[in-house]
Structure formats: structure tokens, C-alpha cells
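C-alpha cells help. One example:
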Amino acid sequence: FDPAEFPDTRVRLADLVRDVAAVTGLPVIAAGGLTTGAGVRAVVEAGASAIMLGTALLRTPEAGTTSGYRRALTAPSLRISEFTRVFLGRPGRVLANELVRAQEKRVPLAHPWVAELTMPLRQAAAEQASLHKMAVWAGAGWRQITDDPAAAVVGRLWESAGLRALSGTRR
């Protein structure tokens, strides 16, 4: 991991899972960008023993996200999810807003100090639901997520992946 480098988004998660599974006998947990059944199926077929959902669950009632955060996830003015160092001093994927655009080139590679310094700003922006100042952590598939309960989201992903229940099986 190099904090000066943003992740290479050209690498498909399924390919990464396949490569890691080929060199280890350990279970592989696939995480990152899993918001569609096709994505889930691809990583399971590539050798993932489990999947971890993040962005797919951000709008569920169980997520605990604030109303401002939920509003940001559906705001037409926030159009791109990209990596930035603005809020942490190391790469993190957020919905690009005015603050990210204005400050990206000015942020030093100074994690965790940048995270500590920006915490009051992030908290105030979240409390005020300021779309263009808050850190809205979200992956590339954020436009596909819904506010359905988590069980429904997970069930729909699994069903649309066309996978049968795997309880009791090991990979």
C-alpha cells in the first residue's frame, strides 16, 4: 500500500479474487463494488468464500446513515464517486463535491493527521447536511443502491446472481 498512489480501478475484483485464491489456501473475502448480482456471481465463481457489502447497504434502515448522508447519496449534483485524500490524508472513495474539487491538490500525504484535523469540519458538515462539504463515502455503484431493508438487499443480490444457497459448504 502506497498512500501516494490511488488504487488501480482497472483491475476487476473477480480477477483479483481469482489471483489471490490461486496462491493461498485461505478463504478469500471479496469486497469492493459489489452492488449487482452479476458482480456477486463473478467473485463467487472466481473463488470468493464470502462477500462483504459496503456501499450496497448505505441506504438501508439498518445502516444508521443520517438523513443528510442519505440525501447526498441521491443528490443529482453529486455525480462522481472518486478517490481523494481530502478527508483522511490517504485514498478513500467519496462522492466528489465542491470541497473535494477545491482541496484535492492541496492535501498532504499525512494520514492520520489529516483525518484528525478534518474531523471537526466533517462533523459540522454532516450535522448541517452540507452536501458540498461533507465526506460522503460511497463506492462506484452508489447510484444502484436502494433504501430497502438489508435482508431484502442481500436477498436480491444473491437471487439476481443466480446462486443457490451454500450453507454448510466450504470452499
